[in-house]
Design brief:
The chain has 172 residues and is an alpha+beta fold. The protein has helices spanning 33-58, 74-93, 97-102, 117-128, 138-148, 159-164, and strands spanning 5-7, 13-15, 60-62, 65-67, 104-108, 166-170. The strands form 3 sheets. The protein has a two-stranded antiparallel ribbon with strand order 1-2. The protein has a two-stranded antiparallel sheet with strand order 3-4. It is elongated, with a radius of gyration of 19 Å.
Length: 172
């Protein structure tokens, strides 16, 4: 693979990392798809729990039939919670709760340091953006599709990583 060059803000050449620049296993290795999937599944569970609680609390039984009376504010609130959860944990801790448990960390792609607020924000907004579109139930599938893009590629960088200029590495 050909090494690509970028420049830093002062114009000095900077090498963009490739898979060969990372150890095969252990700390600072590229996060494998399995742990990334496990971490994301745990994070989605954390985000879904309050939504399910609200649905359970607003459900009614009418003539022996369960009726769901989902509040109109629930989807926008879930969207905001998902974005804030990802942004705050990525920006301040470089990892979500799922990534903490699975030993993963989010770093800047070009130099391995802490992502900026802009990078964390872009990385957090992209996966949840399909819920803002009129896709109905397909919106949730689109969210999962965007999260799933981190499975392939040499560096396992999904669309959120590409847009945010980040990379996920292992800490153990």
């Amino acid at each position: 693979m050909q090494q690509s060059e970028q420049t830093d803000p002062l114009g000095a050449p900077r090498k963009v990392p490739t898979a060969k620049d990372f150890p095969a296993t252990g700390p600072f290795s590229l996060a494998a798809p399995g742990p990334r999937f496990g971490a994301r599944a745990l994070d989605l569970s954390v985000i879904a729990l309050p939504v399910l609680v609200v649905i359970a609390l607003t459900a009614k039984t009418i003539d022996g039939q369960l009726q769901l009376d989902v509040p109109n504010w629930l989807l926008p609130a879930a969207l905001a919670f998902g974005v804030l959860y990802d942004f705050l944990f990525t920006f301040f801790a470089q990892r979500t709760l799922g990534k903490m448990i699975f030993g993963l960390k989010v770093v800047r792609y070009v130099d391995g340091t802490r992502p900026t607020a802009t990078q964390s924000g872009l990385r957090s907004l992209l996966p949840w953006s399909p819920l803002a579109l009129p896709l109905g139930p397909f919106g949730f599938g689109a969210v999962l599709l965007v999260f799933g893009t981190g499975i392939g590629g040499e560096l396992h960088r999904g669309w959120p990583d590409v847009v945010g200029g980040t990379l996920v590495i292992s800490t153990r």
